[in-house]
Amino acid sequence: MKDSLSATNNTPAPPATAAPLEQLKVGDFGVLIYDAPSENDQRDQHPDVQAAISDQSVADLTPAYSTPLGAMFQIDALALLSKLPSESVDLVMTSPPFALTRKKEYGNEPLDKYIEWFMPFCLEIKRVLKPTGSFVLDIGGAWVPGVPVRSVYHFELAVLLAKEFHLAQEFYWYNPARLPTPAEWVTVRRMRVKDAVNMVWWFGKTEWPNSDNRQVLQPYSESMKGLIKNGYKAAKRPSGHDISTKFQKDNGGAIPSNLITIANTESNSAYLRKCKEKGIKPHPARYPEQLVRFFVDFLTKPGELIVDPFAGSNVTGSVSDQSGRRWLASELESRYIEGSIVRFENAKDPRCQ
Known about the structure:
- By secondary structure, the chain is α/β, with parallel strands linked by helices.
- It has helices at 49-54, 77-83, 114-128, 153-161, 183-188, 222-230, 270-278, 289-299, 315-322, 334-340; strands spanning 7-8, 11-12, 65-66, 70-73, 89-94, 129-139, 166-174, 197-204, 235-236, 242-243, 259-261, 305-308, 326-330.
- It folds into two domains: 7-218 and 255-352, Vaccinia Virus protein VP39 (Rossmann fold, 3-Layer(aba) Sandwich); 219-254, no CATH class.
- A hairpin with a 5-residue loop joins β9 (235-236) and β10.
- The longest helix has 15 residues, at 114-128.
């Protein structure tokens, strides 16, 4: 059935009646998932978001499920992107299947075909982004089959993307919990160290994508707290940097670096627990909520539109929903969509994950 994202004669349909989440069954696609916002929920700030999403060209598609802020569609990534109007999206954040040596159950392209496969998606992403929009791409590296040599496919991809977009900054997601692989080179022959870093490329459609690092300030270190409290004598460092008295001003937190340390360990997360309860096999490759939240807070404001065309377990949609952003997501595999529904059962409480 159609839900409130559907429209007839370009008129948004009225909101559907909320269904109690506990009555929803895994696989009951086409229902409207709606949990009444709490008093402090950021979604309350944007009562028009349902109509805003209905105004998008996806209104003629039936979502797998939806919330007042967004919708998941069981369609190909290009099919979703092609439905969106030009210059309508504030952020595309995604983690597509990497070009890995071994074939994964969620599907991944081989090294020699990866860039050719992925570039059409990127060109559509460029079209749908607003001039102030951003494209954030989490992409892991790969090893050349049979030898202890790294592929440079993700760097080659970045060079090509830089001809279509503007490279705002490169980020490095360091996962200290990453397993020491490939075992042949790391743990058996001891010829290499474990690969624990993913590249996260931040591209802007123009040179000036929206961003505000004041939204992602980190807690001050103890030494910095001491400097702020006790003062600092302005002086020139041996490096030549001139540190002024402004250095001791309390700005509410430290500006983060482009090295993001997040241990991707969620063996007891709400997502995995709920998947187990419902007998659903979880998506095997999920980036952490903290990583998505960093870029959502850094690059967007409440009410803006975020799209993830390779949604998987829909971490991007979940974080966007919790943060009061509108969102659209697509995923081909029904089992991953079924599992992703559990992320929204307690979306009004951002501490549930």
